[in-house]
């Protein structure tokens, strides 16, 4: 009986957090990230301001949870391509990510401005992505060492962030342009390594 009560509370907490994140996303979209505050989010979600802060330390932590929840949804759409090699996986995932960032430009800019300097948080996220790519690169580079594949993966992720920041800073740029430029760089580097 106690176990069920605990589960219900946990489910209720998750539902409240989801309601807060949904309200934040709607308000960010309607009135912009900078002009939306936690009091407005709480009112829109039908909860007290204290409830927002009991789930999220501040607006940035709320944004981070919202952001990564949305990204996770996007990235899980392409699990089927995981056995086709590192380049195909990286291409598919980055295209999805670029579309997500482009569709949420204001939120993306606000998130990146605040989160890029959270080294511990980003290190964990990036390390996992880099290791996944390098593991899949055994299809593309079967005769190369693990360290070479990890180094290539790190370079690709660097190219990715460069194109992402360039694309977000130019309102006229398109995801197609971002992605084509990124993949040209990645393919050139991969080709150089394959020749060795």
Please outline what is shown here:
The chain is mainly alpha-helical and 196 residues long. It has 9 helices and no strands. It folds into 2 domains: 2-56, Arc Repressor Mutant, subunit A, CATH 1.10.10; 64-194.
Secondary-structure map with pairings?
Layout lengths: L1 H30 L6 H8 L3 H7 L3 H17 L10 H18 L1 H11 L3 H22 L5 H24 L5 H20 L2
Helix pairs in contact: 1-2, 1-4, 2-3, 4-5, 4-6, 5-7, 5-8, 5-9, 7-8, 8-9
Task: Describe what this molecule looks like in 3D.
By secondary structure, the chain is mostly helical. It is built from 9 helices and no strands. Helix content is 80%, strand content 0%. The chain is elongated.
Summary tags:
single chain, 196 residues, mainly alpha, Arc Repressor Mutant, subunit A, 2 domains, 9 helices, 80% helix
Number of strands: 0
- Beta-strand content estimate: under 5%
For the largest beta-sheet, the strand count, sense and barrel status come to: none
Unreliable residue runs: 1-5
Question: What is the general shape?
Answer: elongated
User: What structural class results from the helix and strand content?
Assistant: mainly alpha
- What is the typical, i.e. mean, pLDDT? 84
Order of helical and strand elements: HHHHHHHHH
Global Rg: 20 Å
User: How many separate structural domains?
Assistant: 2
Roughly what percent helix?
Answer: over 70%
First and last CA, distance: 64 Å
- Count, helices: 9
């Amino acid at each position: 009986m106690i176990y069920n009560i605990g589960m219900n509370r946990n489910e209720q907490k998750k539902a409240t957090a989801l309601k807060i994140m949904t309200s934040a996303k709607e308000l960010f979209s309607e009135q912009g990230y900078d002009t939306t505050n936690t009091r407005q989010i709480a009112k829109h979600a039908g909860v007290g301001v204290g409830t927002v802060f009991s789930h999220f330390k501040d607006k940035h932590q709320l944004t981070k949870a919202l952001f990564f929840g949305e990204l996770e949804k996007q990235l899980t759409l392409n699990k089927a391509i995981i056995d086709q090699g590192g380049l195909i996986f990286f291409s598919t995932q980055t295209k999805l990510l670029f579309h997500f960032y482009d569709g949420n430009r204001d939120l993306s800019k606000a998130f990146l401005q605040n989160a890029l300097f959270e080294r511990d948080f980003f290190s964990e996220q990036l390390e996992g992505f880099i290791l996944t790519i390098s593991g899949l690169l055994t299809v593309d580079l079967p005769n190369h060492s693990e360290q070479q594949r990890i180094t290539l993966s790190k370079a690709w992720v660097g190219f990715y962030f460069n194109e992402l920041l360039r694309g977000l800073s130019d309102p006229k740029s398109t995801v197609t342009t971002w992605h084509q430029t990124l993949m040209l760089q990645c393919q050139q580097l991969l080709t150089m390594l394959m020749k060795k």
